[in-house]
Each structure stands twice: as C-alpha cells, then as structure tokens.
Write a structure and sequence with these properties.
Strand content: 5-15%
Helix content: 40-55%
Radius of gyration: 25 Å
Number of helices: 7
CATH class of the largest domain: Alpha Beta
CATH architecture of the largest domain: 3-Layer(aba) Sandwich
Order of helices and strands: HHEHEHEHEHEH
Largest sheet: 5 strands, parallel
CATH topology of the largest domain: Rossmann fold
Structural class: alpha/beta
Shape: elongated
Distance between the termini: 90 Å
Number of strands: 5
Length: 220
Amino acid sequence: MIADGDRSDDVPRVRSRARRWWLPPLLIVVVLAVGWTGGLLWFVHLVGQPIMPAPPTDGIIALTGGAGRVEAALRLLAEHPRSRLLISGIGGATDLGMLAARAGVDPAPLAHQVTLGRAAISTRGNALEARAWVSEHRIRTLAVVTARFHMPRAMVELRGMLPDVKLFPHPVPTTGPDGALREVSLRVLIGEYSKYLVAAAGLTGLAPARDQLRSGPASG
C-alpha cells in the first residue's frame, strides 16, 4: 500500500514536470535561432571579403538577373579573347549586339565565342545550362560572373553540376538603374542567405526541371 503522505509528495513533482514541458522545445528554438544568426553574420562577412579578379580561363559564365553582370562578362571576354562565354538565362529577343553596346565593346570579334543561353530561369537552371555548355566545349576552367551577394549560392550550384571544372569567382558590384553603386540591403542579404542554405542542403535538386529551365535552345 502507498501511504497518503507518499501520494501528496508526488503531486508537486508531477506539477513541476508539467510546467517545464516547454523547456526542450524552447531550447531547440534558441539553438536554431543562434545558429541561423551566426550563419547570417558569417555570410555577410563572406560577401564582404575582397576577391581577386578571375585569371584567364577556358570559359566564362554570366548569370543574368542583375545590372552589370553581362557587361562585366563581355569586358572579361574582350580581355581574354581565347575564352568562351555563356550568358545564361538571357530572356526575350535580346541579342549580342544590344548587350555589347551596353558593355562598350565591339561584338564582331567576339560573336563566335558567345553563347546566349535562354533556358535558365533560376540559379540551379543556370548550373544545368552550364553543364551542357561545358560538356560541349570541353571547358576545364570557368570564371563565374555574378553579383557579390549571389556568388556563394551560384558557386554551390555550379560546383554540384561541374565537379571536374575549376571555378573562379568574378563578382561585380551592385548598381542601381542609373548605374551608380549602391549598398545591398539587409533584407536582400537575409533572403539570399536563406536561398543559399536551401542550395547548400541540396534541396533545390528536388524541384522538377520545368521549374528551372524554359524550353528553347541556346544560340551562338
């Protein structure tokens, strides 16, 4: 038999455990929040680090989606005339002449070295488009031209698709519609960091190809 006194001693213990049920979930949330915040600080630091311009390479890829990327890639190609250039994710009826005019370079000597990739609609799509182009032209070294804040995610996706290709980041500064340099907002950095985590975890590979590529062959 259990004495009445023993039962009364157990009641506070049960109540105490019931009051503390939320501690383990709270601890998990705190650890995740600290880890995410620490990762964001690392990402901001990484994005702010100076990067040497890319050396001469077999190929150059410009990931469209922001001002100055294609122009920087065309200028890099003009400096390294033995390279080939893939402008990935170019849309509409944009042609090389229009792009070269913006970059201030003569398109005629470069035309046979430039491919306008019109299929990619995401960063993973850029990597898929690059894989086919790299295989076709037997590229072994590749300069990656994109915005500085986008570079970590771009490198993750490209490394996954091109494990045998040596990649060299060639970041371009962020500019506004008027071409003036501008700071990247914290909101943009948080969004890009979150996308980077998804890419680094390999989750972008779960999306179907139709969400990464539009139909239509590359030109050039």
